[in-house]
Amino acid sequence: MNMKFTLGWVGLLSLTLGWAQDGKALFQANCASCHAINRRVVGPALKGVHERWGGDEAEMIKFIQNSQAYINGNFKNSAYAKNLYEQYNKAVMTAFTHLTAEEIRAILAYIKSEAEAMAAAASSPGAGKPGAGGAVSGTPSEVSPLLWVLVIVLGAIALTLLVTTLALRRMLQPQTIPPTPTVWTRMGQAMRSRRFLALVALAGFLWLTNATIKKARSVGLHKGYKPVQPIAFSHKTHAGEYKIACQYCHVGVEKGKSATIPSTNICMNCHAYIQEGSRYGTKEIAKILESYEKGRPIEWVKVHNLPDFVYFSHAQHVKVAGLACQTCHGPVEEMEEVYQYADLSMGWCINCHRQTKVDLTANPYYARLHERLKEREVTVEKLGGLECSKCHY
Amino acid sequence: MPRRIRDTFLLLWLAGCAATDPRDPGIEYASQMYHSIPLEPYAQVDYFPYASDGKHLREPVAGTVPRGKVDFIYPFPNTNEGYEEAGKKLKNPLPPTPENVSEGKRLYSLYCIHCHGEKGNGRGILVESGKYPPVPSYYGPQLKDLPEGKMFHSITYGKNLMGSHAAQLTPTERWQVILYVQQLRAEGLAAEGNTANPSQKR
């Protein structure tokens, strides 16, 4: 008797558990792309759906199996369903004719248990708000160069003061017989010698000259430039961790001169749903949502600036030559903040143009060109024979 | 040596040891030659006085069609009726040649794979990571009979949580992607059939 009783309970428990399990899988496969339990996605949040429908599962099943027929028909909750449909911009819920009533009951049971579990988790004080406090705030602060200058200047002042006080103290002492020379005093003498000072001065001069030449050669080149962007966008997260292709956002890279900076609608393809980031919480993503709602473009700061006297086309390099983006832009998928990787100097361009072999076989342009060359009479002039610099150089 | 020249040299020499700030683009010689007077795309200007909204990158006029691209005008509206109509009337103008399918595959791996997955089963990297909700499989019960016109409509306007990809894919590219999606769906259905049949025999 007792045995039977427990067995019965175990059976019932496993049955409900099995149901909830099935319900979860079915929910994930059929509902989760448009519905969540406790937030609006495409359709309404499903928390409390039983209360809204008066607990009438039979009506809910009819609606789920064919929502349009239910809205336009004359059922118990048709008016409510029609109102809901209007409220959600007339987004048609797919007719789930392939789901049986039993399967829908399992899904509804899962929704109910999940909503209750979430409510319980929210009300218990310890478990509340996961992740809200866990977000790492801000970027690691960099010590400003001004501070370093200050430290060096103060250090220099302290050192001179120390040396002066020591010298003054020695002067105050009564003159005695000069002490016998030790290693230290000899070294001191050597360091005060003309020859040593000249050597130090020469080393300093060479170092400074080298630094000056380096600096002078970097005029007009912005290698290492890493401007502050209006949004703390991480290429490491997007291109590295989630392996989103560069072209997904930089759409123009195969089609035109500019690789293009994505417009906010492209951000919204994912961030309409993902509104909490892994690093900054909602703070940074909120800027995208604001830009989208107000129709105001995000003012990203351009990192790679070529001078006006150079023409460069992304399409020619990426689509025709088939270069990887990383060839010129470096490991962007590892960059938390984007910086200019190559110096983009003329020498750097020329070097690559000298070494890169043109594929004359796979590109049909050259096949056509060679055919056309065979048909025509080619004079020396046609091959550039009248260019001034052929003779005058 | 005149004093001024000597001072200039001395200054330049000292400038050599100035630290480089990654937030600063550095020095430009003859900046008039660096910055174009007519505005280039993505030139950094605070305000463009010749446009009422201050933006110098203009949007194309509504209905603008690139040369020779007549199919840029999409006749079906972004409504439920338009979706149904596109499903009935819209047909792929491209033949399923190997070139079109392989280009479709390449584009699919750039623009679709993150959510829809390598095999089109809706298990892309964003879904697997739990960041994004599950996406219906191409060969699941919801999409296995989806006509190509509805696919095109969905890429153009977006559908449910999926945003419009019209800014990223031209109409021709959309059709190439659809050719590859149809291939993925056929492969998925065939694989399911293969696994379903032995279990039925048992």
Q: If you average the pLDDT of chain B, what whole number results?
A: 84
Main sheet overview of chain A: none
Could you tell me the radius of gyration of chain B in angstroms?
A: 27 Å
CATH class of the domain at 99-195 in chain B: Mainly Alpha
Mean pLDDT of chain A: 82
Give the C-alpha Rg of chain A.
Answer: 37 Å
Helix content of chain B: 40-55%
N-to-C series of helices and strands of chain A: HHHHHHHHHHHHHHHHHH
The CATH homology group name of the domain at 99-195 in chain B = Cytochrome c-like domain
Percent of residues in beta strands of chain B? under 5%
Record field, number of beta strands of chain B = 0
Number of helices of chain B: 7
Question: In oligomeric terms, what are we looking at?
Answer: heterodimer
Supply the CATH architecture of the domain at 99-195 in chain B: Orthogonal Bundle
Number of strands of chain A: 0
Question: Residue ranges of chain A: pLDDT <50 for 5 or more in a row?
Answer: 10-17, 126-141
Q: Note the overall shape of chain A.
A: flat
Main beta sheet strand tally, sense and closure of chain B = none
Which range best describes the helical content of chain A: under 10%, 10-25%, 25-40%, 40-55%, 55-70% or over 70%?
A: 40-55%
* Shape assignment of chain B: elongated
- Share of residues in strands of chain A: under 5%
